[in-house]
UniProtKB/TrEMBL annotation:
SUPFAM superfamilies: GST C-terminal domain-like, Thioredoxin-like
Protein family (similarity comment): Belongs to the GST superfamily. Zeta family.
GST N-terminal domain ranges (all copies): 2-84
NCBIfam families documented for this protein: maiA
Key word Isomerase present: yes
Domain (GST C-terminal) ranges: 89-217
Protein name in UniProt: Maleylpyruvate isomerase
Membrane spanning residue stretches: none
GO molecular function: isomerase activity
PANTHER family reported in the protein's UniProt record: MALEYLACETOACETATE ISOMERASE
């Protein structure tokens, strides 16, 4: 069986989510670095791979690449179910997906580079005002996560019960960003506890952005 191939970047939260799932499921995958700072994502050769100009883009055999991290996570779950990353119970599965989407759909898109750059270039937002916008996105998302995880009965060692799910992969991808962007974390003890439990797992720790090619030393 041919190994998968993924176009990614060390700092991409979306690529990080997929990288964690690949490691947890013990799926061999070659990651090809796309230099987002140099604008590799805008080059015609990459736009033919993903017209959106975003990572990750995952190739598995023939056919066009798979894009969008949550869609890729679902694909890996369906094609490699041996190490499940979603609960079997439909209600628990829905809750795990809801928590995952809170991060990947409602929080992460607000602070990606193309949004930050657009605000500065087209609305004259200073870097400091842009950072205020970014911090608001983080604190809003983290605040909702903390409230739900602290109050809802499904929370245990991880977001949903005692097994890692897509919700945890998304939570960790957001949590690691707090260190990169200097977001205070004291108001989110439940999120912190779960993030630290996840990062103690070798497969997740190995996927950490700062352990990837191209990351600052």
């Amino acid at each position: 069986m041919r190994a998968m191939k993924m176009y990614g970047n060390w700092r991409s939260a979306a690529a990080f989510r997929v990288r964690m799932a690949l490691n947890l499921k013990c799926i061999a995958c070659e990651e090809i670095f796309i230099d987002l700072d140099a604008g590799d994502q805008h080059k015609p050769e990459f736009r033919t791979i993903n017209p959106q100009g975003a990572v990750p883009a995952l190739f598995d055999g023939d056919g066009p690449p798979l894009t969008q991290s949550l869609a890729i996570l679902d694909y890996l779950e369906e094609t490699h179910p041996e190490v499940p990353l979603l609960p079997q119970n439909p209600r628990e599965r829905a809750r795990a997906r809801s928590l995952a989407q809170l991060v990947a759909c409602d929080t992460h898109p607000l602070y990606v580079p193309r949004v930050r750059n657009f605000l500065m270039e087209n609305y004259g937002l200073s870097r400091e005002r842009m950072l205020e916008f970014l911090r608001n996105a983080f604190t809003t998302g983290l605040g909702v996560l903390e409230t739900r995880l602290a109050q809802e009965p499904g929370t245990s060692r991880f977001c949903q019960g005692d097994a890692i799910s897509h919700a945890d992969l998304c939570l960790v991808s957001l949590w690691v960003g707090t260190g990169i962007f200097g977001i205070p974390t004291e108001p989110y003890p439940t999120v912190k506890r779960i993030a630290e439990a996840c990062l103690s797992v070798e497969a997740i720790a190995r996927a950490h952005p700062l352990r990837q090619p191209g990351a600052p030393s």
